[in-house]
Design goal:
This protein is 32% helix and 16% strand. The protein has 193 residues and is of the alpha/beta class. It has a domain at 9-118: 3-Layer(aba) Sandwich (Glutaredoxin), CATH 3.40.30.10. The strands form two sheets. A four-stranded mixed sheet has the order 3-2-4-5, covered by helices on one side. A hairpin with a 4-residue loop joins strand 4 and strand 5. The relative contact order is 0.13. The model has no long low-confidence stretch (mean pLDDT 81). One of its GO terms (cellular component) is ribosome.
Length: 193
């Protein structure tokens, strides 16, 4: 085990400001694109700025975009988030498609994902050797090769009939029994009541 986690901030995982519960708020506040006008490793950054930066700015009006030319330095993307965190990405020799993917990644993060050592809310003396449970842990192997949409996959597995379904079925049986009786028998039953 390395000791690199000792210098990271630690905390419990949580959604920032309950983001996504009411509406989604993009956590990326500003992006700074730093590049050299002449250096070869900044070619992809310059192409992105010339061809795609205006489109990115129009699609994301809540993100402030700064372009900062610097002499004899490598290209860098710096993302600043609402919680005060900064994400720094080196884009040396990256093409314009890679830079657009990195910008998309910065836009979808909340800033604290890579610089936070996650602490758990529980402790156990005997940890599991199988790893954490996921929704795919106990799935049938046939689901790996199935093509979707699949009617069999949406069918519930041997689920017992619910109480509501039982009542509806009893009601239908009672109505069928009433229809099969003659009207004279029904009138006699009503008089007897």
């Amino acid at each position: 085990m390395s000791n690199s986690h000792l210098f990271l901030k630690s905390g419990f995982p949580r959604a920032p400001l309950q983001n996504g519960i009411g509406r989604y708020v993009c956590q990326l506040q500003r992006v700074t694109l730093k590049f050299c006008k002449n250096h070869g490793s900044s070619r992809g950054m310059r192409e992105f700025i010339e061809n795609h930066l205006v489109d990115f700015a129009k699609e994301n009006p809540g993100v402030v975009v700064y372009v900062k030319p610097r002499r004899h330095r490598g290209p860098v993307l710096v993302g600043e988030y609402l919680n005060g965190d900064r994400e720094w990405l080196n884009c040396r020799n990256a093409n314009k498609d890679d830079i657009s993917k990195w910008l998309q990644l910065l836009k979808t993060q909340n800033g604290s994902s890579s610089s936070l050592r996650l602490r758990k809310m529980w402790h156990t003396d005997v940890p599991s050797i199988q790893g954490p449970w996921t929704p795919f842990t106990l799935r049938a192997p046939e689901a790996n090769v199935a093509t979707y949409p699949n009617a069999d996959a949406s069918r519930p597995l041997d689920v017992e009939q619910s109480a509501t379904d039982k009542l509806i079925e009893l009601f239908k049986q009672q109505r069928l029994a009433d229809k099969n009786k003659s009207t004279d028998e029904v009138l006699e039953e009503k008089r007897a009541e």
